[in-house]
Amino acid sequence: MTSSSERALPTATYRLQLRPEFPFAAAERAVPYLAELGVSHLHLSPVLEAVPGSSHGYDVTDHRSVRAELGGESGLRALAGTARAHGLGLVLDLVPNHMAASPRHNHALRAVLREGPDSPYARWFDVDWAAGDGRMLLPVLPGRLSEVRDRMRVADGVLALDGQEFPLREGTERLPLDELLDAQWYRLGWWRLARTELNYRRFFTISDLIGVRVEDPEVFAATHGKVLDLVADGVVEGLRIDHPDGLADPEGYLERLEEATGGRCWTVVEKILTGTEPLPASWPVAGTTGYDALRQIDGVFTDPTGADELADVYREFVGRAGDRGGYWEATARRAAYKVVTHELAAETAALTRIAGRICAADPQLRDHAPWALHTAIRELLVRMPVYRPYRTGGEQVLTPEAARGAKAAFAVPEEATAVDVVRDLALGSRGDGPEHRAFRHRFAQTSSALRAKSVEDTAFYRYTPLLSANEVGGDPGRPAVAPDEFHAYCARLARDWPATGTVLTTHDTKRSADVRAGIAVLAQCPQRWAALLEEVSGVPAPDPHLAWTAWQTAFGFGGPDAARLGPSILKSVREAGLHTSWTEPDAGYERAVGDFVAAGPGRIPLRTASEAAFALEPHIRAQILGAALVHLTMPGVPELYQGTEREYRALVDPDNRAPFAVGADDDKTALVRAALRLRRDHPEHFGPMGTYAPLSASGPAAPHCLAFGRADRVLTAVTRLSLRLAEAGGWQDTSLALPEGRWLDALDGVREFTGGPDTPVKLAELFEARPVALLVRPSEAP
Asked: First-to-last CA distance in the chain?
């Protein structure tokens, strides 16, 4: 962990999604508003050259220049200057793992396709030239080669097809088409071949994004030069590292980046931690981008008893229409098998080839059959409890217990010894030659892809009792977090990672925080939710699992909107892959889904159509405000996603990446502005020197108050599970003893409270105006 004294730390960041419709100049115009809001840094989505028209920028095409569509380097520097004049710095989203696999736009890939493995750019990419016929497969054709061959054209050293362009190997332009195709360093293939025949490393299962070998010092230098120049010039003060788990050696990469920046950057990594998995202490970063905090915040506002009851209601409602039984662990394991044997078949085949070459060269391993190695790889991968193993600590995730479980898949015990070989290779205990390192790295990279695709992008859509828990880094099988667990987590952050990032909504969250808040309230009233579903049962759905998911999504969203709910629900059924999918769509089923959404969730205002649902609105508001205040005052550096300073209801793409726009203020905005300005004006209370102290209420409703102090100068208190609280009779005589001295309400600037064990504050009084309280010492009052 890097010392915070080596760099200026943000007090809060604000994420802006750049795109051609919202370039640097537009961001520059937003600076005065964001400075007034109280953030210290603007966090920009990727700024390097990308595929023309890209709405996100993660499909980088050229690391040497800032994206012209956004205004180029001059536009970025102008934005930095305006931001600096208003007291703001810039944080960049850096994408080291992959580039766009577009020969037309990616100059490095174009050179490799033209010149083959002898190209100086060949070292940029993980290409297994020995696989297949010794060429690089490009699975880009809309149909089989025979179906599109007649549309191909050759001219000026380029092979063109439907807007795509492929460079030609020198001396082949005048060959007959069939000979020309066979003479290239690449093989054009039907897009469906990517699943089994691909021989280059990609981003997850997206063949349009090719992996980059930044572990090579020359590749690192070539792909980071421009960003490092911007850091050296003071244009950039922070970096968000996208998908570090895709890298061969994340720790080595981060060490090189730290050295290259000279310790001048606040750096956080998009590392998804599973359960109690710690961030490696040796990584030279400030922390994560905050999905672990999101899980903790959402969890502490989720009722554990009601969540269990809701899961029972869900299983009864969906029957066998869901994922065969409706239990999280089994659902996740089935999804892992599905992904590793289908979507990642090419990746497991690559691992099998590497393991086979290692075994063939080692007399002690020579008799392990390829099929046995393949089975061992598959069985160990699906038993990985986290995203991937690292340079150290791999034995803690690739355990002997996992090996024993993997061996159970073998009918012949003697063949099961392949599991020990694969485990040793993955842990690096069988040698350190080039092939051994290649296997170790690729196993870890494949493991992270498997976890992301099987859990986040499959199982989260198959198991849906409480959709608010189905978020990146979440645990749908255990959606609730106890207050003591939350406090322990915050204490660890304050001690070990005080400058880590924290978030509630990002450009990747499946549902914004305010949508999740509405859904989470249902865990406090599972039977009321069942009654709501009964009220709308007259709208026929293709299957009960879809009905549950769609109605719950609509409830969280807050109102009928077929135009936005429709694409979201269609995405959910395709990701689940139970009745249709992205690659094998069932047109009839998808029409039925569209008809159902239009007639039901997209038309019926569920929250206001029922008296019972309408009565939940105050509790949804308490959930939204409570989560927002906790996020902004807990340890770490909070990030606001654009627009979330006010009520913000979004459902993944394209909502999550729409252009920024200033909206009307509401009560959430006032809370956010007060907390952000407090952090800006008094960073010492929240940074590495700011202590964290849990506070406990006393009385019959004590579990419904979550409270903590920062540096004995700021105090946060929020209402949790307010519906259960109301049903139990309210706060009654429950009180909270504040630390000694005077305290002022920072949200109204008027109310005062006196702290001390002999003068506890009645929570009914503290929360009289709103379900949250932000108290400060009078000297810190705005």
From this structure: 34
CA-to-CA dists, residue 169 to 146, 148, 166, 178, 179, angstroms: 22, 21, 10, 14, 12
In 3-state terms, what secondary structure has residue 127? strand
Evaluated on CA atoms 556, 562, 564, 567, the torsion sign reads: positive
Structure tokens at 439: 């296997």
Angle at which helix 345-361 crosses helix 434-451, to 10 degrees, equals 160
Asked whether the beta carbons of 375 and 351 are under 8 A apart, the reply is no
pLDDT at 716: 98
Distance separating alpha carbons of residues 422 and 436, to the nearest angstrom: 11
Beta strand 89-94 with 158-161: parallel, antiparallel or unpaired? unpaired
Determine contact, residues 301/517, Cβ cutoff 8 Å: yes
State the alpha helices, DSSP H only, in 408-459: 417-427, 434-451
245 and 291 Cβ atoms separated by less than 8 Å: no
Question: What is the C-alpha separation between 753 and 776, in angstroms, rounded?
Answer: 10
Binned average pLDDT, 10 residues per bin, the chain of 782 residues: 56 97 98 98 98 97 98 98 98 98 97 98 96 93 96 96 96 97 98 96 97 98 98 98 98 98 96 95 97 98 98 91 75 97 97 97 93 98 96 91 96 94 95 95 98 97 97 96 98 97 97 98 97 95 97 96 95 96 97 98 92 93 98 98 96 84 92 97 92 97 98 97 98 97 95 94 97 94 74
Burial of 749 (0-12, 13-18, 19+ CB in 10 A): exposed
Nearby residues of 250 by Cβ (< 8 Å), 6 or more positions away: 244, 269, 283, 390
Structure tokens at 613: 């649902």
CB contact at 8 A, 392 and 373: no
Residue 24 to residues 37, 81, 451, 509, Cα–Cα distance (Å): 19, 12, 35, 24
SS (H, E, C) 349-414: HHHHHHHHHHHHHCCCCCCCCHHHHHHHHHHHHCCCCCCCCCCCCHHHCCCHHHHHHHHCCCCCHH
pLDDT at 780: 80
Q: Indicate the SS3 state at residue 181.
A: helix
Three-class SS string for 62-123?
EEEEECHHHCHHHHHHHHHHHHHHCCCEEEEEECCCEEECCCCCCHHHHHHHHHHHHCCCHH
Is this model's pTM higher than 0.90 or not? yes
Strand 202-203 and strand 206-211: pairing? Answer: antiparallel
